[in-house]
Amino acid sequence: MTDLTSLTLAEARKGLAAKNFTSLELTDAHLSAIEKARVLNAFVIETPDQARAMAREADSKIAKGDAGPLAGIPLGIKDLFATRGVRTTACSKILGNFVPTYESTVTSQLWRDGAVMLGKLNNDEFAMGSANETSCFGPVGNPWRREGSNTTLVPGGSSGGSASAVAALLCMGATATDTGGSIRQPAAFTATVGIKPTYGRCSRWGIVAFASSLDQAGPIARSVRDAAMLLRSMAGHDPKDTTSVDIPVPDYEAAIGKSVKGMKIGIPREYRLDGMPAEIEKLWSEGAAWLKAAGAELVEVSLPHTKYALPAYYIVAPAEASSNLARYDGVRYGLREQGKNIIELYENTRAEGFGAEVRRRVMIGTYVLSAGYYDAYYLRAQKVRTLIKKDFEDCFAKGVDAILTPATPSAAFGIGEKGGADPVEMYLNDIFTVTVNMAGLPGIAVPAGKDVQGLPLGLQLIGRPFDEETLFSLGEVIEQAAGRFTPARWW
Ligand code: GLN
């Protein structure tokens, strides 16, 4: 029998239905892969007993012919999703050993559809970062390495554990979240597929909040089809999240293989950055050529406010984070550091519990929201946000169906190589992804090629609101043309 961990989710579904193997066998194969890959630090908690129990239940449902669409499929869960009875920390010391008594809506829908939980995945603390280096559990290793080098690279962030685990064949798919690029950037760094759906498509209930007007959940998977299958289970209206939208969830898988003939693809002029590596330029033109060969029409478009997106994001996101993170006070959850009075207890807990990047964001956020600076920073950033959204609306109003851009300005870099002296160096990684969150649009990252060092690179497609289907159709064209990429095992 082929190694069960190397199957795609769609192949595993077929194999389970044909009774070629059981979910318990599939789950055990992944549990043993996880054990052998601990050096990657992708999982922060392994839940083998729960996984086997869920697998047995899936097997009995499959035997009875009563299997859900993800029956028996082993998944990893980003540690930002509350999981009932399983420690949930957002990879922050401040949550300590917090064990939720409830389950996030997104994960409960995955379990409803029969999926199996292997454990919780590492991420940047409170999802703040682009390299998974701010986690209180330490950095995650990217299964990809530069040709001829032993240097461990970052998997991107903040969903670094999700991307690394999926790329290293430790789980068949993973949940992730994206506030400014945290699904798409790690997907691009690991040759996996990641989709951030439209804001409102997935419920945020039970997901640790970072910046509530930007946060969205989505899957990371090994193929476009697998991502479509996962999103179908994750998406949907939830009365417990008033920002989730009450429109039907389409069968995303049906979009795969649909003709893209006649679709208009926008190539935004402003994403051609000075000093962008030539290989990213080349990848972008190749991607455009593949879509053209499949019958799509390419048009140059302009998104004139692009250059303001990153600065505006780094005002809006910290502002919302400073407000969301006010709840971690040492009284209600997790860590508590004593003090002589309640104020000192708050101060000691927050100083001890939050890492450096989180403290920086809380300070920036508090500053831009403070009485004297609110108009100059926060209000102005919100106005810029409206202009960014309008750029996209103007483009779609001209008949553009989707926009093609690079996913990241570079391939993966080494642990500790970026942002040490200047955090802005790290923030620049999000240059192609934050616009999409600011506008609330869906965006998918698909592996498209490799750089000269042999590292994967991805392309991003941005769609109209709630038109994830077009992204799946176009994404699969790129996947077919580029092929799939698997890292050589060194762990
Ligand atoms: N890297 C970005 C940040 O640090 C985005 C993170 C995310 O999408 N969660 O804010």
UniProtKB/TrEMBL annotation:
Recall the GO molecular function terms of this protein's record: ATP binding; glutaminyl-tRNA synthase (glutamine-hydrolyzing) activity; transferase activity
Which terms does the UniProt entry file under GO BP?
A: translation
Entry GO terms, CC: glutamyl-tRNA(Gln) amidotransferase complex
Reactions catalysed, semicolon-separated, are: L-glutamyl-tRNA(Gln) + L-glutamine + ATP + H2O = L-glutaminyl-tRNA(Gln) + L-glutamate + ADP + phosphate + H(+)
Pfam family for this entry, one: Amidase
Q: Where is the Amidase domain?
A: 25-471
List keywords of the entry alphabetically: ATP-binding, Ligase, Nucleotide-binding, Protein biosynthesis, Transferase
What family does this chain come from, according to its entry?
Answer: Belongs to the amidase family. GatA subfamily.
Question: What quaternary arrangement does the UniProt entry report?
Answer: Heterotrimer of A, B and C subunits.
Q: What does this protein do?
A: Hydrolyzes indole-3-acetamide (IAM) into indole-3-acetic acid (IAA).
Q: Know the name of this protein?
A: Glutamyl-tRNA(Gln) amidotransferase subunit A
**Biological source species:** Bradyrhizobium yuanmingense
